[in-house]
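Blinded run. Sample ID left blank on purpose so nobody reads anything into the name before looking at the predicted structure. Input follows.
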Amino acid sequence: MINISYINYQYDELYDAGPDSCGELIVKLFLRMKKMDQGQVIKVISYDLGAVEDVPAWCRMQGHELLVMNEEGLLITNFYIKKC
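Blinded prediction complete.
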């Protein structure tokens, strides 16, 4: 996984988590990825500070590839996750 702010991956799905807490984010991410095909990429936009630790851990546990985790300022984090 790399953390570089200028990379903008192509993605198949977009999930803007809005005000969702990290627990809600993980559940909704799981449900969205369940509908995706293997090899597709989802971009997740999170405003929850806990997501910085929880999303990478969830990806490892689920066997998905976290391509990029990009923090924009203090509150916004973008994740690009490839379904494996």
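Unblinding after everyone has recorded impressions. The helical segments are 22-34, 51-62.
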